[in-house]
Amino acid sequence: MPLSVLPVDPRLPGVATCASSMCRPGQRCPPQRAPPLDLERVCRPGSTLLWDLLQDDRIGQLGEGLAQGAERALAGLLSAAHRHVRTAFIEGCLRNLAANRSVVVSLRLLPKLLLSFQQGRGQDSHQIVMWAEQQHHMMEHFFTSLEIYTAMYQSGNRSSSPHTNPPFYSHSVQVGIFFLP
Q1: What angle do CA 43, 46, 49 make, to 5 degrees?
Q2: What pLDDT does residue 113 have?
């Protein structure tokens, strides 16, 4: 039976399930096709669970260990993903920097994503960094974020937000300095 005629489980829209006549207990089911990936929406809320968990509005609900684990898992998955997926997440990180949200996570993910293009030809990494700078003004967003954090810290703004207290500020600067080389 071709994959296109497999019945669809109504609880999981778009996910094909095996008919009982095709798969017996202990028998392997035929491979299933994943629904097409919409690269325009991959970093939008509700599209990628790990990405959503690492955003400013949710990361505070995770413990530090869970947040670090989610970040490691996302970085690991992305390092093995197709270049178009990695590029979409680079754009998501740069949108975060431009909007001054989820800055620390974005600054930690960006170097990993940019370095993932070194696995092939060396020219790919140079091209992706130049694309990020020329098309998305990566360094401008980086320095603007740094200026905002500096101004917030110097003004004594100590709101309850996790990204404005002194340890976070210090960590943000350390992440930013790591990002520069």
Answers
A1: 80
A2: 92
Per-residue tokens: 4: 């296109």
pTM higher than 0.90: no
CA atoms within 13 A on the CB side of 25: 0
- Quickly tell me which residue has 């790919």 as its tokens: 124
Cα separation, 173 vs 175, whole angstroms:
5
Residue 109 buriedness (CB in 10 A; 0-12 / 13-18 / 19+):
buried
What tens digit of pLDDT does each residue of 133-171 get?
999 999 999 889 888 877 887 887 645 444 434 344 445
DSSP label at residue 181: -
- With the C-alpha atoms ordered 160, 163, 164, 169, is the resulting torsion angle positive or negative? positive
Query: Which residues lie below 8 Å from residue 97, measured CB to CB, with a gap of 6+?
Result: 103, 106, 107, 138, 141, 142, 144, 145
Entry field: residues in the chain? 181
Q: Report the 10 Å Cβ neighbour count for 93.
A: 27
Residue 94 exposure: Cα atoms within 13 Å on the Cβ side: 21
Cβ atoms of 135 and 127 closer than 8 Å: no
Sorted by where each begins, the domain ranges of the chain are: 1-35, 79-179
Rg (CA), the chain: 20
Q: Which residue has the tokens 């980086």?
A: 142
